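Standup notes
- DV: blocked on the single-chain target, sequence here:
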Amino acid sequence: MNKECIGRPMEILLVEDSLMFARIAIEALKKSDIRHRLTLVVDGQEATDFLQRVGRFARAPRPDLVLLDLGLPRKDGRAVLSDVKADDDLCDIPIVVVTGSEDEADLERSRLLGVDGYMTKPVDLEQFLAMIKRLRHAWHSDIALPAL
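- DV (later): unblocked, structure below
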């Protein structure tokens, strides 16, 4: 798909408490050919409020993709992941776990919950963008264009 996408940009929710990694992810996405809008939240409770459109996030867009750290303040990313996958209205949102955890139990639990990707930090930016592009193509795969 070329840079000229039909329709709206992909909505990405980045849930990350490390501003250094958030900056890296944001810059990598800016340099890619992925049309997107990105929202950054810095803890698990903000992520939950955003996804459930609570309080100041009452008018938040539904994300097409969530990039989720596991080690978050206030509410752990593992709990956010479990909550999203248990919610009938949210469970189909693709989630990519991007974490500093190298714990095999985190990887296995994430896979059992059906994450769409799992990357450990430091992240290889080429692999990171390739995963986002793969998910973007899946996101666009169900678009039907009208006949001319």
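- Follow-up: Strands lie at 10-15, 36-41, 65-68, 95-99, 117-120.
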